[in-house]
Amino acid sequence: MHKISDSFDPATVEWRRVTDPDCTDFKVDFEYSLLGYDLKAGRLDMLLRYAEGGGHCRRHRHVASTLTMVLDGEQFVTDHLPDGSLGKTVHRKKGDYALAPADAHPHTERGGEAGGTVLLSMTAPDGILFEYFDENMENGWTLSIEQYVDSWNRGAVHGGAPSDGQVAAE
Length: 170
Hints:
By secondary structure, the protein is mostly beta strands. Helices cover 6% and strands 48% of the residues. Strands 1, 2, 3, 4, 6, 7, 8 and 9 form an eight-stranded antiparallel beta sheet that branches. Strands 5-10-11 form a three-stranded antiparallel beta sheet. It is globular and about 40 Å long.
């Protein structure tokens, strides 16, 4: 087990910011912080902070089972169903707790007008945390715990789109 931070206090952890000016469907603007991980057990804990004004994270689905706890602000999650339609939007507020099984639907998620901060604790027996998608919710690529940790250790941002047919490590 590797503990990166002794605290989940948003004022004291190291944050990495992600934006995507090429995304015109919504505002990709969030920060994340690695708290700890256990490669052998397939576990990773992190904070995610959505920017004010409805900052989104990238289009994705959780391959890992995921515990979510809203620490501050709000979180909105909208599923993208297999038939191409949008599912219901789940609205979580400070103090809300959710537990999602592995292989969740692809979705978009964002904070409220004042943003939001969530704790995510993920368990991935095969090591795969997320699958990301392009603007058409196609051409998925995955991100493993090992890739996430490697990008963190290099000071890079994880989960970017692959280029030249390669799976992205950052």
